[in-house]
């Protein structure tokens, strides 16, 4: 689906948007002539405040325990 008519967009807009692939651009036509383009928006970047808030919920890392687990699985002399 690289083109969609303005009528199809008006009548089935939700379905047209649902069919868009993440990196696809669809041309909207009126009377066979291109008038607009549709594309999915990328994910908006998080603000500093949102990143700080998310960081509060991340559990603390036990680095010594992780190292011991890795050494138990893999030869530590590699």
Average pLDDT level? 89
Report strand %. Answer: 15-25%
Radius of gyration: 25 Å
Distance between the termini: 52 Å
Physical arrangement of strands within the biggest beta sheet: 1-2-3
H-E string:
EHHEEHH
- Give the biggest sheet: 3 strands, mixed
Poorly predicted regions are: none
Structural class: alpha+beta
**Helical content band:** 40-55%
| Strands, count | 3
User: What best-fitting shape do the alpha-carbon axes yield?
Assistant: elongated
Tally of contiguous helical segments = 4
Summarize the structure.
It is built from four helices and three strands.
Structure write-up:
This protein has 78 residues and is of the alpha+beta class. It has a domain at 3-39. The protein is built from four helices and three strands. The mean pLDDT is 89.
Provide tags for this entry.
78 residues; alpha+beta; single chain; elongated; 21% strand; 3-stranded mixed β-sheet; 4 helices
Question: What is the fold's blueprint, element by element?
Answer:
Blueprint: E1 3-5, H1 6-11, H2 13-19, E2 25-30, E3 33-39, H3 48-56, H4 63-73
Parallel strand pairs: 1-2
Antiparallel strand pairs: 2-3
